[in-house]
């Protein structure tokens, strides 16, 4: 998989150089620089109005800033590994202020520039929000992380293997062994427009793993297996303990208190009114570079992500959230609760997913006080990292996603970016 990715990059280099030189005819390369929609319509994309990438190196100030601010994080690999981006949004906040900018294209076909602070899908960074809601509920005495899921959602639990042995802690730290429904439902969404826009209820997402084997027994302390199913179950548990919808809980627990007006826990298929950009997906039909095509996946139904990945947000909101979280502002017990949220679970195999530790919806990225998560939906990839002591918060997103195996991830700019 890794070599395939590499091949695509290499094969595309000649196109990028041509574009840097102002040439728009790219049909001479074996790498297909087109965007496809599900009907097979094809259009050119990528012009050099503002060149940010020349085929080998990300040019300009992004490189400088990213290198300077997060030199010691796994971000350092970002520029070299970057494939051809329709667009990027980057937001970096330090005690000195905020750097924020959009680069490239929000709509690769129409070549609409990516706005600064554009709304994007944050994918699995949604789990940081869910983890925050969970800690709030624990703080309010509504639940304990050592409680079994069966106590809260008995009707759903009966359909889940080993549910009588699965605690909330196991769910939050991906220590259940449960199959990831995303490997079926979300992957299948690449197959057709119908599948991409299909809505599922949370219960249907959970039910879809019926009959799938479990990887290990819940609580096996040497095993970590990232599974979106875990977070859908936590979302259902939160709804049950509060008797409120997850949308309400997000609004009341996080979005309104922090005035995150650019953030939505989104239901359904987004469109131009809910996102400031299209989403695209690199698809390798036969794993050769000539078959690499870019699908327009903007209308992927976020109900397929739900508690595991349905948030749309902006860089500015994300860095505001990160700073408040680090300072304990979202909790009655302040940083004490934030520290509990980071009671990191550690296994050697979680490095494959890019984590050195994993707490309640938040990971540690190979350095103390480097809190991180990543996100991928069908159309967006993002990375979210912050340090409390050094007071920096970073959110970077691209409106392009790709085949996401651990091997590919390990060589992406965000090695801590699990799928979805
Ligand atoms: C781009 O322009 C430079 C300078 O004119 C030239 O040396 C180079 O060959 C050109 N590259 C392509 C791919 O046309
Ligand atoms: C693009 O390049 C190909 C191959 O060199 C050539 O056949 C074609 O006529 C070119 N198209 C345009 C619009 O220049
Ligand atoms: C891209 O830019 C970098 C930095 O200036 C340079 O080292 C590299 O050779 C360039 N690559 C191409 C293909 O022009
Ligand atoms: C980086 O930004 C500074 C200040 O905005 C500007 O002067 C400089 O030319 C930029 N450097 C590059 C490589 O774009
Ligand atoms: C990065 O690492 C260098 C040396 O390894 C250290 O001096 C510096 O303080 C570190 N910076 C951050 C932001 O951690
Ligand atoms: C659409 O999704 C269904 C159910 O997940 C799956 O069986 C089917 O293969 C998918 N269709 C395509 C064309 O991928
Ligand atoms: C944990 O899971 C691994 C892999 O399935 C297995 O080899 C190991 O025996 C398990 N450990 C315990 C304590 O059950
Ligand atoms: C609240 O509780 C009632 C009664 O059990 C139930 O019908 C309803 O679905 C619950 N609402 C939410 C949002 O969980
Ligand atoms: C909330 O944010 C919006 C814009 O993002 C701003 O106009 C408004 O003044 C803010 N409200 C408060 C109470 O800070």
UniProtKB/TrEMBL annotation:
Superkingdom, natural source: Eukaryota
InterPro entries: AmpC-like, Beta-lactam-related, Beta-lactam/transpept-like
Keywords, comma-separated and alphabetical: Signal
Domain Beta-lactamase-related: 73-409
Signal peptide: 1-18
PANTHER family in the record: BETA-LACTAMASE-RELATED DOMAIN-CONTAINING PROTEIN (PTHR46825:SF9), D-ALANYL-D-ALANINE-CARBOXYPEPTIDASE/ENDOPEPTIDASE AMPH (PTHR46825)
Protein name: Beta-lactamase
